[in-house]
């Protein structure tokens, strides 16, 4: 069964907290990774690696650069 | 040493070891004669013939914030923790980053990272590898992270000479300050190699103690019953500073880092040259570099790993270079052998021995080997007299590397 947006958001919050130390509660759908969460490109790769394992998806590099907000990642995982 | 040469002093100490998570806890455990060797309970323990090691008393993952810890190999974590302690101990000096250097090495580098990443690659593919895999496995990683942490821009270097690595780093740091490249250099060694591949490989050399029923009695340098070294992990770091710079800011000076001596055996990849020539000459070079006479040196922190071949040869070298008056101790009897970290922590111990004027005793020396003609401090710690004293830390490594670092009271 596909995961709900809320379930994905919670899991993403945990992953991002583990990797960056940003409180999971700050990881909300509208947040931009670079401008608002201050996440650099290598941390984005770490997040992608963890998300691929967690959600059993493949995130190719040319897609990763288009994932600018938390909502973008949720949409990608749900697609 | 010429009188106009820049003098180098020790102004900060940091350590995380099998005896404690910092210098204070490690030093008091050492004086109490406590062993940091523990029985291993890992899931792979049945696959290797040695079931114990000097595991770090404080897990670095509990000290560093999680986002930082996950980007650093365990050896880098130890080094960063010890470097931060040393830096604070030195009073967190305000120094131009262009005049601040780092020299921190490791004997093996990020070996657990390499092996874990290889498992990830084989089981899940390259795109599941952490983007920090390379900086975690490279042996210069610790030096790089410390330089970033402190804003050190005068050069970050890594010596690699197996178990002589930490001492060689300190020698290189002395040279950096003497030659005018830096006013302060953070220097030492680190290692995190408690992994079944390393234990299996050292066991394949027949170099490790297999005293599985008495792990805390396994590291017994100079004892007739010794049967190999005990693997340890951790880091020891010193803040070295030009005396002029240290005096100007009025900081406590532990000791002078007076000189270093190096030789290579050019003989065998792992066995020491039987006459002890390489170790003797390294000590003699260190004396010359420091402007010391043999009779000035009251104490040697020996390399003495508890392997059957090396310990007596080293005592002969000490007798030849320093004399029979040398008060010798082997702190590996308590910490185990930290490989690339050994020269770092043992230099910390040598500096504290001079500063506190007390020599930690070698433990497990029940039945001294024949032919030892120096005074091994065992039983209780030995107090040192007042007055100007000098001490040497020896570190020797596979490859035939011999390093001696001389310190003096200030």
Q: Which descriptors would you attach to this protein?
A:
heterodimer; A: 79 residues; mainly alpha; Non-ribosomal Peptide Synthetase Peptidyl Carrier Protein, Chain A; 4 helices; 56% helix; globular; B: 410 residues; alpha/beta; Peroxisomal Thiolase, Chain A, domain 1; 2 domains; eleven-stranded mixed sheet; two-stranded antiparallel sheet; 15 strands
From the spread of the alpha carbons, the general shape of chain B counts as globular
Question: What is the CATH superfamily label of chain A?
Answer: ACP-like
C-alpha termini separation of chain B: 16 Å
* CATH class designation of chain A: Mainly Alpha
Oligomer: heterodimer
Q: How many extended strands of chain B?
A: 15
Summarize the structure.
Chain A is mostly helical and 79 residues long. Helix content of chain A is 56%, strand content 0%.
Q: What does this 3D model show about the protein?
A:
The complex is a heterodimer of chains A (79) and B (410). Helices cover 56% and strands 0% of the residues of chain A. Chain A has 4 helices and no strands. In chain A, helix 1 (5-20) packs across helix 2 and helix 1 crosses helix 4 (70-78). The longest helix of chain A is centred in the N-terminal third of the chain and has 16 residues, at 5-20. Chain A is globular and about 30 Å long. Chain A starts with a helix and ends with a helix. Chain B has 410 residues and is an alpha/beta fold. Chain B has 2 domains: 9-249, Thiolase/Chalcone synthase (Peroxisomal Thiolase, Chain A, domain 1, 3-Layer(aba) Sandwich); 260-408, 3-Layer(aba) Sandwich (Peroxisomal Thiolase, Chain A, domain 1), CATH 3.40.47.10. An 11-stranded mixed β-sheet of chain B has the order 5-4-6-7-1-8-15-14-9-10-12, with helices on both faces. Chain B has a two-stranded antiparallel sheet with strand order 2-3. A two-stranded antiparallel ribbon of chain B has the order 11-13. In chain B, strand 9 (297-301), helix 12 and strand 10 (327-329) form a beta-alpha-beta unit. In chain B, helix 4 packs parallel to helix 7 (141-150). The longest helix of chain B has 16 residues, at 74-89. Chain B is globular, with a radius of gyration of 20 Å. The two termini of chain B are 16 Å apart. Chains A and B meet through helix 1 and helix 2 of A and loops of B.
